[in-house]
Amino acid sequence: MIRVLVVDDQDLIRAGLVALLRAASGVEVVGEATGGADAVACAARTRPDVVLMDIRMPGTDGITATERILAEAAAAPPGPGASAGRPALPRVLVLTTFDLDEYVYAALRAGASGFLLKDTGPERLLEAIGAVARGDMLFAPSVTRRLIEAYVQRSEPVPDSPASLEALTAREREVLLLTARGLSNTEIAEQLFISEATVKTHLNRTMAKLDLDSRAQAVVVAYETGLVTPGGATG
To answer: Is the pLDDT at 162 greater than 60, yes or no?
Structure first.
């Protein structure tokens, strides 16, 4: 059972999300929050597996709330769900729209596991919640790539051989590159002729070496460091 906290300041949107999730099998809505500060308190109290987070809210926004939720969860002792195979930290799935590129980028940097557009269909929403709960992949990778590229195109250039990636093995860099290009673990495994479990191992080691908390942050680092550049070229 995936425990979900729904955060949105718009009553109709929040109520619709809650109704959808409560009707779905394998999902339990453990709380609702109308703003960022409320979300932080509710997350600490309910220890959800996934937080469905709006970005633009009055007071504490979704980006700040994401940072605080993950920081407090990291500092807290393991909850009862840890022994049941649940993630040590909640996975934050951000809700956004196409015209909020910088907000999405900031959310990923804050530690969000991915994001959805608010016009996402019910089936895709449920698939995304399941995916981030497993820690498996960043949902909607093609959209993620476009948004990150749009941001990077406005950013300062970075060195071609960043020191931050020197600790990675050749295979780890290869897996990181394919991840940033939007491939799922299954697709990476097929392309590199390795098992999906091996892909996950390489990603976990990469995130540990780079001190990252999520696959989403790994994608951002790949673009920031020039391993992948806008348009798909390899750095």
So the answer is: no
List CB contacts of 188: < 8 A, sequence separation 6 or more: 175, 178, 179, 199
Asked if residue 179 is part of any domain, the answer here is yes
pLDDT at 101 over 70: no
- Phi-psi bin for 74: left (phi > 0), alpha (psi -120 to 50), beta? alpha
Domain membership of residue 148 (yes or no) is no
Q: What angle do CA 164, 94, 109 make, to 5 degrees?
A: 20
Domain range for 197 is 158-224
Contact status, residue 196 vs residue 186, Cβ threshold 8 Å: yes
Contact at 8 Å (CB) between 235 and 160? Answer: yes
233, part of any domain: no
Residue 17: pLDDT band with limits 50, 70, 90: very high
Smallest CA-to-CA distance from 51 within 81, 36, 60 is with 36
CATH code for the domain in which residue 106 is found: 3.40.50.2300
Whether the model pTM is above 0.70: no
Q: What backbone phi and psi angles, to 5 degrees, belong to 114?
A: 165, -170
- CATH (domain of 208): 1.10.10.10
pLDDT one-digit tens code per residue, 57-75: 989 999 999 999 999 998 8
